[in-house]
Design brief:
Largest sheet: 2 strands, antiparallel
Shape: rod-shaped
Radius of gyration: 24 Å
Number of strands: 2
Structural class: mainly alpha
Strand order of the largest sheet: 1-2
Number of helices: 3
Strand content: 5-15%
Helix content: over 70%
């Protein structure tokens, strides 16, 4: 019973608050989608580099290659760089999965918010 009393005591949001919350949801969704796109591109770049380096790894594992770490270009061998790149790519893919789950949860929150506040979008032709 206390939950029904608590719900009845909550004051409805004003139109301005509803609009601010809706805009916040939209901004959050846009930010998450942008970050996911950025990380997907980075993972794709890692995959491209790995495909090139894997060929060199089989033929000449001690071949030198250069890697940019924290803004510093360092010289390494292919056999040292490939495992690190694979680890980085796998980590990026895990972050992408986490952000995708966050995106879906935020979309669900927005749908619930729209339903609770009876928000309908008007499309102008």
């Amino acid at each position: 019973m206390s939950t029904s009393k608590a719900k009845s005591k909550v004051q409805p949001l004003s139109d301005q608050e509803i609009q601010q919350n809706y805009s916040r949801f939209q901004n959050d969704l846009q930010t998450l989608a942008g970050k996911i796109g950025e990380l997907e591109q980075e993972a794709e770049e890692h995959t491209l580099v790995l495909s090139t380096l894997n060929e060199a790894l089989t033929e000449e594992p001690d071949r030198k290659c250069f890697r940019l770490i924290g803004g510093v270009l360092v010289e390494r061998t292919v056999k040292d760089v490939v495992p690190a790149l694979q680890t980085n790519r796998d980590g990026i893919k895990k972050v992408i999965a986490t952000l995708t789950e966050q995106l879906k949860a935020t979309e669900q929150e927005l749908d619930n918010f729209k339903r609770e506040n009876n928000i309908r979008l008007i499309h102008k032709a």
